[in-house]
Amino acid sequence: MGNNSLRFIAVLLAACVLNANAQTPLQYQLKVTPVSKSSVPAVHSGAFGIIDGHWFFIGGRTNGLHGFQPPFAFPQSGINDHIYFTDPNLDSTWSVDVYSLPDKIREPITSSNMQFYLHDTILYMIGGYGWKDGIQNFITWPTLTAIDMRGLLNAVKSQQPITPYFRQTSDSVLAVCGAHLMKLDTFYYLVFGHRFDGYYDRSDTTGFHVQEYTHEIRRFTIEDNGTTLKIKNYSAVRDTVNFRRRDYNLLHLYDPYRGHGLLAYSGVFRKGIDLPYFDCIEIYPDTVIIRHDFNQNLSQYHCAVAELYDTTTETQYHIFFGGMSMYDVDTVTQNTITDSLIPFVRTISMVSRDANEKYAEYNMGVRFPALLGTNAYFFPDAKIKYIHNHFIDLSNLPVGGRIGYITGGIESPEPNISITDPSLSFCSKRVFEVTLQKTVQVNAWEIPQNVLDYYCVPNPARDAVTIKFTLSNSAALQIDVWDVAGKPCIQIPRQTYAPGPHALSLQIGHLPAGVYAVSLNDGSLRKTLRIVKK
User: Fold this and answer.
1) Is 2 inside any structural domain?
2) 441 and 458 part of one domain
3) What is the model's pLDDT at position 522?
4) Same domain, 214 and 340
5) Residue-level pLDDT at 468
6) What does the pLDDT average to over 494-520?
7) Which of 44, 56, 72, 487 has its CA 20 to 30 Å from the CA of residue 304?
């Protein structure tokens, strides 16, 4: 779901970060090519996966961006009320509507932004935000639904009843949406997210809804004897500062020393600050590590992602396809540009993590042909070989280098459609083939990491703002304030700042009301944010 904070008129400021020419250690050329698969449904923000060579789609939305004005947000006409199975090789899709199911099952599985995990042939679906007929309102569902996907596939293809393949239980700790469900060893992890009950509205003060972030990593086992379901061995780790996240990407992590873990990237929104998170969080069975030393600049929202691993260098790679981001890349200069409204972008980026636990982010030099990728799906190719259970093994790529396909998600005609007319966005039916070809020269650019976690508070402000940033290394910075015409208004002379966090007070009371840019410049890098002067 989109942000729930007051937004201002979008002004794209001429901010840039000069990208380094350092090449990515991934010596493969990425290609994203449109392909014709006309039977694939247009769906986003639901549960998906692969069963017996078939892509499946359950729940989510069939329209575009959900809208923000109650009672018109999340229109019922956009509910995905069908279950789809697609054979990508035959370009054939089988589907069934869900109205034969009891309401208590039908309504949760047609919700949006639910959490799900496919264990063998059983799909577990948890929570989700959706409509409840009994109260004529929206809720976050407190349900765990188990679906026998192999049985359901066969029933749908043979046009048999589907009800026998669903089971369900309820628990208040499962009332979560915008999170992710993953499994490490025998435990399931329900990571971050929020509970949202009532009509969706971007403002928190209208009274149309109640919203509460979990601020937690919830850990439990699922006892499933094939008939009944139970949540057992429940515990939670809570952090009200760093865990206030939703609509992010949670991916697999393999550390040569710590073993299997989970990796949470970015997400929205910080408490009291209308900005996303930029750091990432490593989650292991015995510890949680917040990586404040790295910023993911080019992707802050849930999107299609591919997971890769190089066994030679013990380096893992996550490739993020489009989505929404505070930073985008200029196709001519390869500099990054800033828009604090977190618009839809065409950028395809990658984050690497090497054997020394060092992160780096790259602009892959490949872009979507439109504003795509938000809440889209990545389906690995059927011939893919895996390493460490979940990663595409770079040493065993299929002939031709195809690693998978991307489909679904929201397509927008403009970056900031949320403040103009969200109804102009729509659910994409496009399908893209993703390939990797071994090469010596890779057209990718590393994104600088010296200036981290840069923001201004309060924003808007009347008299003063506090400029906050963290430096990885010492740097001589000049700080400038510009108006929308590019005229300099305030300048703090260049001085050297030590590594670590900084907070500087900036007096703006004498400036006319309006929109301004505040930039940090070290001579080779300029990073800029938008502020509003009341």
Assistant:
1) no
2) no
3) 79
4) yes
5) 92
6) 93
7) 72
Q: Which residues, at least 6 apart from 465, have a Cβ–Cβ distance to it below 8 Å?
A: 456, 457, 458, 459, 505, 506, 508, 518, 531
Cα(400)–Cα(403) distance, rounded to whole angstroms?
Answer: 9
Listed residue (46, 42, 213, 217) closest to 116, CA to CA: 46
74 DSSP assignment:
S
Count of structural domains within the chain:
2
Which residue type occupies 277? Answer: Y
Average pLDDT for residues 89-115, to the nearest whole number? 97
Residues 312 and 337 reside in one and the same domain: yes
3-state secondary structure of 6: coil
Identity of the residue numbered 99: Y
> How far, in Å, CA of 327 to CA of 175, rounded?
32
Q: What single letter denotes the amino acid at residue 366?
A: V
Range of the domain at 387: 13-446
Q: How many CB atoms within 10 Å of residue 219?
A: 18
Sorting pLDDT into bands at 50, 70 and 90, what band is 417?
A: confident
Q: What's the token pair of residue 431?
A: 């399908």
End position of a domain, from candidates 414, 446, 478:
446
Domain annotation covers residue 476: yes
Phi-psi region of 257 (alpha: psi -120 to 50; beta: other; left: phi over 0): alpha
Which ranges of 129-256 does DSSP label H, i.e. alpha helix? 149-157
Measured between alpha carbons, how far is residue 527 from residues 319, 450, 454 in Å? 24, 10, 8
Give yes or no: residues 338 and 483 share one domain. Answer: no
**Count of CA atoms in the C-beta half-sphere (13 A) of 143:** 24
Cross-strand pairs, 236:
218
**Together in a domain, 234 and 347:** yes
Boundary of a domain, candidates 418, 446, 474: 446
Taking CA 254 as the corner, what is the angle to CA 248 and CA 260, rounded to the nearest 5 degrees? Answer: 90
pLDDT band at 520 (very low <50, low <70, confident <90, very high): confident
Averaged pLDDT, 3-16: 36
Q: Where are the beta strands (DSSP E) in 421-487?
A: 426-427, 431-438, 445-446, 451-457, 464-471, 475-483
Residue 172, domain member (yes or no): yes
Task: Please report, for the domain that includes residue 148, its CATH number.
Answer: 2.120.10.80
Residue 420 and residue 463 share a domain: no
The answer as to whether 130 is a domain residue is yes
Mean of pLDDT over the chain: 90
User: pLDDT exceeding 90 applies to what percent of the chain?
Assistant: 74
> What does the alpha-carbon distance between residue 392 and residue 410 come to, in Å, rounded to a whole number?
26
pLDDT band of 11, cuts 50, 70, 90: very low
Contact 260, 388 (CB under 8 A): yes
Task: State whether 463 and 506 are in the same domain.
Answer: yes
Is residue 13 pLDDT above 80, yes or no?
no
Are 365 and 447 in contact by the 8 Å Cβ rule? The answer is no
Residue 368, pLDDT > 90, answer yes
For the record, the structure tokens of 389 come out as 């259970």
CB 324 within 8 Å of CB 297: no
Grouping H, G, I as helix, E, B as strand and the rest as coil, residue 333 is coil
Question: Is 469 exposed, middle or buried, given 0-12, 13-18 or 19+ CB atoms closer than 10 A?
Answer: buried
**Residue 442 shares a structural domain with residue 455:** no
